[in-house]
Amino acid sequence: MIRNVIQIGLIFIMTGISCTKPFEVEVFETSESGNKLTKRTDFVTGANPSTIVLDDSKEFQVITGFGGAFTESSAYLLNQVSKENRDLILRAYFAKEGARYSLTRTHMNSCDFSMNNYSYTPVAADTELKHFSIDEDREDLIPMIKDAMAISEDGFRLFASPWTAAPWMKDNNSWVGGKLLPKYYGTWALFFSKYVDAYKAEGIDIWGFTVENEPHGNGENWESMHYSPEEMTHFVQHFLGPKLEADGKGDLVILGYDQNREGIREWVDVMYKDEASSKYYDGTAVHWYESTYDYFPTELQYAHEKAPDKYLIQTEACVDAEVPVWKDDKWYWKKEATDWGYDWREHSKKYLHPKYAPSNRYARDIIGCLNNWVDGWVDWNMVLDVKGGPNWANNWCIAPVIVDTDKDEVYFTPLYFIMAHFSKYIRPGAVVIDAQNSDSELMVTAAKNPDATIAVVVFNEGNSHKNFELTHNGITKNISISPQAIQTIVIYSNLN
Fold it and tell me: Which CATH number belongs to the domain containing residue 344 in this structure?
């Protein structure tokens, strides 16, 4: 595709006969007014613009990727729509012309976004897991993953998370709540190893794991299994890590915790207490559900400082406790959504759960995370239906793509385009760089890609146009952003 670019003139430095090469930019915007990754060239200039100054000599974390989760619910729905729409959705997420998802998640055994409760280890007391089988995944989940792999030119990383072990391994013999019995720690470690082998046999490579989805539990509403920080670390240090290592799988990534950011301090204090406790942990996983607006920067910074050379990945996020609004883009930009804590959260923390605009929540959170050492950001379900399901738990949520299976129609919500502002233009291996922003009403992050392009993401949550001067290596470009809008500015530097 031929780019319609904006040329920035040469600036000559009058110290000898030297000059600074120009750069070109492309600007893409998604907005409440109707832009959807729309290329912008018609900038409105005004007096007293703010400034955004990039300094790529100041580098921070290396990006692992952006993406979403392969769930049985999403995979089931893709099998209910026409092949044309199935391909449309998968290409929108994984093709070069689409969002180019690079980091993905799936569940081991069933989860709340499954059609029923199931385990790969249904036979009680089968400590050697002779009856281990992923047959439950063959109809929907595995085909979705393999089709995505076939579409993705760059490939993507896939990590897996268990919600629970089979009930027979737990102290309450239930899908919900309870803890893994210590006598089955070795069996549960074997489970992870066998899962890798089983998926490998299907042509799917697993990049890594989170040890347990939401180890604090989830209000005992669906599959769960509880760990304290000490219990999880004991399991990883003495069972999971050594087992994977012994089976020649020591390169698999192990992420600890995997729940809300507010509670991260007590976990990383235990996980990274010393060399022995941290040996098999490759990083920390977090979710965003503690608040609808606060991304907890001090907690993220604390986690990074505890383990500066390890991953810090946001592994799950979604607009929860809401049924999708169908083909009404405006709703996603209005502060009308509520979440799980809006009604019942304790009074002292209820302020964390005001009504919010879903689009704003996504944009704010991802930028806030990137500016506080998070290196990967993964959404939850890729596809849901008009009711926010289907799933056995009746746990209704919103996904970036909604389908009406009765009418075979697809709706790409604004959330899809906001995700693409990051996943499409900030690629694995990119390095977050310094971006000084003079306007407190704008949120800004920037990353330099392996191909030397720089992606600058700007979010304007306000209700008026904003003008700013973007400066890189002494060269400045005047740009404006619409009200209630997110922009990705791609800088092509050092042109011949």
Answer: 3.20.20.80
